[in-house]
Every structure is written in structure tokens, then in C-alpha cells.
Amino acid sequence: MSEKEGKIIVPGNFALTCLNLNNNGIGDVGITYLYKALHFQENSTMKRGVRGLLRLTLKNNKFDQDGRQYTQLVDIMTRRDPFYEQPIIEEDQSNLTAQT
Length: 100
Known about the structure:
Layout: E1 2-4, E2 7-9, E3 18-20, H1 28-43, E4 55-57, H2 68-80
Parallel strand pairs: 3-4
Antiparallel strand pairs: 1-2
Helix pairs in contact: 1-2
């Protein structure tokens, strides 16, 4: 860590990758702002190769988990999670008939 022109300089990673907002009383308005911020990040900085926030935890807050903004926020974050694996969709074998 150093100081330059009155500013503190910390070498290293400047990107926030994980954010824990559990138990913060975040409501629907807060979720809307989080969604807008991540949507902006996805459409601007990520196009320049900056990965941005990869993990966001929001347990025990006051927003509607069935709300549109939260659902879209989950969609954005699911695609960003480096450990996310797309679920394997297996064919329903019960509808297949044997061909003779």
C-alpha cells in the first residue's frame, strides 16, 4: 500500500468478485437497484473483458423472491458463477415407443 497525490494506492485486484448481503433488510427497491447495477455491468464492463461480480448472496432479506427483478437478478448471477453447471435434461423415456 502506498500514497500518491493524497490517494491511497493498493496494488492487486480491484474488482469485487464476491458480495455477501445476507441479513441486511434489503427490500424490493434494493433488489431493483442491484439488478440495474448488475445489468449495466453485464452490458458495459463485461464486454471489455472485465468479469465483475461473480457471486452474490442475499439470504434473510425482505424482498419478494418471486418478484421479476429478483428472478432476473438470479438469472444474471447464475450465468456468472464460475462453479455453475447447466443442469442435464434427460429425455423422458416413457413417451418413446419401440420401433419394429
